Structures are given as C-alpha cells and as structure tokens.
Amino acid sequence: MVEIIKKNKNLLLVIFDIAIIIACYLVSIFFLSINITDDYITLIKELAIAVVTYEIFLNIFQMYRNMMRYEVGKDYVKYIISSIIAIIILSILALTFHFKYLDIKLNILAGVLTAGMFVMYRLAGRSILARKMKKFEKKTGKDTNKKVSNLLIIGAGMGAREIIIAIQNSMKDEYNIVGIIDDNISKLNRYILGVKVLGTRYDITKIVQEKEVDIIFFAINKIDAINRRKILEICQETGVKTRVLPTTEEVITKQGAINSLRDVQIEDLLGREPIQLDNKNIHSLIKGQTVLVTGGGGSIGSELCRQIIKYNPERLIILDIYENNLYDIEMELKGDFPKAHIEAVVGSVRDKSRLNEVFEKYKPELVFHAAAHKHVPLMENNPLEAIKNNVFGTYNVVNCADEYRVEKFVLISTDKAVNPTNIMGASKRMCEMIVQAKNKVSKTDYVAVRFGNVLGSNGSVIPLFKKQIEKGGPVTVTHKDITRFFMTIPEAVQLILQAVTYAKGGEIFVLDMGEPVKIYDLAVSLIKLLGYEPNVDIPIQITGLRPGEKLYEEILMEEEGLQATKHNKIFVSKPMHLEMNELDAKLAVLGKLQYDENYSREHVKEIMKSVVPTYKNPEEINGEKTKGK
Length: 629
Prior knowledge:
CATH architecture of the largest domain: 3-Layer(aba) Sandwich
Low-confidence stretches: 1-8, 248-253, 624-629
Number of domains: 3
CATH class of the largest domain: Alpha Beta
Number of strands: 22
Mean pLDDT: 84
Shape: elongated
CATH topology of the largest domain: Rossmann fold
Number of helices: 23
Oligomer: single chain
Radius of gyration: 34 Å
CATH superfamily of the largest domain: NAD(P)-binding Rossmann-like Domain
Strand content: 5-15%
Distance between the termini: 83 Å
C-alpha cells in the first residue's frame, strides 16, 4: 500500500479514495446492523484488506493517470469495473478465510456505494475544475465574447463519436453540434450521444441554411476518393468552412479525432483512388542495392528518397547542389531510419569530375535522375542554363552510369517534353533522346518516366495561390481556359518505382494523370476552401499566357504509340529510333552555345529547334484559342 502511494503522483486522490472505501464500508455496516463493538482490531484488518484490494485494481486500470478534467464515459466505466472486480475478489477471500465482518452481503453493498461515490465525486471535481478554468480564461481575456460556432458533422461513425465526446467534455464553449449527416439510411433519425442524424449528403445544403451552420467537420476517414470528393464539393458549395478527418493512421498518430482534423486540401478534391502497387517487385528491385538520387533535395527527389528507404536499400546516396534542402532530407531520413546507410553528397550534375568521384566511391546500382531546372518562365529568360543543367547535366550522369556499370538508370521527365513550346520542355525532350540513344549502346537499362504537374512541388501554383490569398488577392491565372494534369507527389513517386520494375531499357513510361484540371477552377476551389468568395472577397485576375506557355499539356507525341503495362496507371510509349551518332551531332551543336559569348535568347531557341524537331512556337499549339481572352 505504501509503495502504491509512493509511486502515485496524485496522492490526494488516493487518500480521498481510501476515505471513500472506508466510509462506504462503515455506512454499510451500520445499514446492515452489524455489531462491531467487541472486536475493532479484526474490523481494522479486514477494512485494510478491502482498501488494498480496491487500490490494486484502480492502479491496474491506471485510473490515477487520468486528468480529472478530461475524463469521459469510458473512464467512469473503468471505476465501476474495478469496483466489481474488487467485490468479487473480497467475496472469495471472505469465503476462503472466513472473514468476521466482510461477508458477501457487506462487500456487495459497500462495493455499489464505493463505485457510485468514485464516479460522483469525480464528476463533481471535473465540473468545479471546468468552472475555475472558465473564470481564469475570463480574467486573462481568453474567453471574452467568444462566439459558439454551430457545427455539422459528416459521418455517423467512430470519428463522429470521438469528436462529440471531446466537444461535450471540454469544448462546449466553442461548438454547438446541430446534427450529423450520413448516407446510411438506417441511421437516419437515430442518435449518437444525444446528437441526431438529420439526413444524407443531399440534405447538407438545406441543413446548413436551416441550422445556420458555421463550420462542418468531415468525420469519415474510411471512404473511397470519389465519394470523398463529391461530398466535399457539396460542402464547398455551401460556403461554410470545412475541416476533414484524414487517414486512420494520422488519427492514431495524433491521438484522437478532434486533434486530427485539418483544413480541406486541393488533393481531397482530386477524387483519386488509392494506387495499388506490387510492393514485392519494388522490394526486390531496391533491397540490398546502392541507390543514387540526383536532385534528392527537391520535391520529387526528396519523396523518391522517402519511399526508396522503406524498401531497405544497402545504401542511399542523395546528391544535390543546394545544401539546405539536402541537409533537411538527410536529417529527416536519419531520424526516421536510424539504422539506414544514408550519404548526403553536395555536388552538381554539371560537374563531370565530381560525378566521377561519387560513382567511383559508391558504385550505385540504381540511379534516379531528378536533378533539373523545371521553372518554365525562368528558363525562357535563361535558356542557356536549361541546356547546361538539363541537357549536359543529364548527359554527364548518363555517361557515368554507363562507365560504372549501373544496372538501371531512370530519368524523371515531364509532359512538357511532349511537343514542347518552351526551352525547359525542349531540354527535357533532349534528355529523353539522350536516354533512348544511350540505351542502344550500353549494358545499362536506361528509361524515362513522364508525368505532369505535382501538387505542392516547388514552383507549383498551389503555394503561389495560397500566398496571394493570404495577402487578400488578386489570385493570378494566365488564361481562363488553361488546363494541366495534376498528381500528388507521393502518387507520382509510387508510380515511378512501379514503372521501373517493368523496365527492359529504352522505354518512356507515361503515368496516367487522370483528367486535366482547369487552373482557373483550381483557383476558385482554393479560395472557397479557405473560406472566401471568389471575385467578391478575393479577386481572380487573368494576366495572359507567359512566354512559352501552352494552354493544354500533352502526354504523348503524335509519332508515339501507347501500350499498356501490368499496372492500369502506367503506360509505355514506343521507343524513338535515334542513333548515338545522331545524338552526338545534336549535342555538338548545343555544346558550341556554351562558349558563344554573343549568344541571344532567340538564337539559343532557334538552335534548340534545329536539334529537337518537335519544339514549336506556342502559337502553333495554342492557335486561335488564345485570341480575345
């Protein structure tokens, strides 16, 4: 008993409980008219046994670790269960050792009183603490004129139940729950902890108006992507701020539904089904291999590193010229995977001697080449830098892969390489040509993986739009009809890894990006998600297409075919027939530009058009669609 009290930080609570147990037994003795005048010593011994028994089970159920203010129904049930077990144990002891006073009848009566008192005084204590906290908040100004928000919950499941409990226990001053929405007809007009299920998704708009809803909590974490998107679109149209419950894993990590709620993100509105991967093949590709990722500090490169490390490579080499990003991903991975062999290497793909050092030292077996300049307007103004970094940087890494006998080389390409209208896209198309030509003369398997824009990447429109909205607008869109293919970074990287397992050499793998999205619609959705009205609170300004910008991106060139793979989101184009001597001639032409002190932007672009036949002026692709808009 002394040890229990010593270990227990809540000593006062333990003393209260002991007093309650003793008092309940004395009251029961009086109620049952048991005569105790002749043997007080035996009574004290038996009461001590009762106290120890109750305290043992209160500690087994860890009841003294609770914070009284945040106790909920299940905690009170534990007090009752611990009392019931104590009654049973004491009754068995009474029968076995022939207790003089603590017979079965006394134990049951005293146990019921004890359980009731445990719950009652803790409820009273929680109420007193809540009032004191409220007074404190008023004194400190934290609770001045706080408006209670009318809350509508989507989903009548465990997520909703947890949210209701949390609000009823400690957030009544913040939220008034007006009801629940659920598409399961059998749940209509039923209740969860006193909150009524009012209707289905088709009733959301009406209920928001009738109940004057201020905020919606989307409390379903197990739902397919398409239905998730459709319900969130309905919520979005109401103009009411919506917060969502993410995956079950995140809920567990953040310890509870109420702490896991986050703002709706654009990704929630894409409506994509989870990607199914053949993890066994990916594992066999990477496990035990030395893997090099160039541009490993960038958006795609860093996510490649995060996913590759999960498949147990022998060593992961992360190469990047920008040391801040490189340091960040190194520290992140070493923190998450302390036993993994991770090497962070500062270096540029332009520097052939530095690449030779890296390949000589680590001898990678797999190379993912993600290093590139990708920003279209910047490269239009600095075309020679795109050629130096993208074209000749790729050529350097490709040659090192051949020289040091890398097994597979993967180029991270882009849909902008298809019928390019800008120098960045043309440089990436040139990279694809390098990879396909080199594959014919090398024992290394060279492949490229092509996909569109990724949400949240460096240079993506989403971060730009958010910054513009935070400043009160305007949100700038270059053209009302401009469309792009979008995918999340993890989605893209998962498919890259899967595509490589199908690689035999020379392929350009094409990822299914889903339906193209209008950038204007994306801006409208983001403004609404952040609780504003487009073109009322936040204006949207059409600025005109930028130099080299297309209205519509493409995935395949006209001369390419498209073949299915084993994966329904991965396709492969027919290889282009480009010989190494043709490629060398093209590179020689571009190489002269690096030493031409009198070059002009237009001259560089004209030279690039001579070596990349599909490189066209934007007007040839956009045509009449840009006029008058």
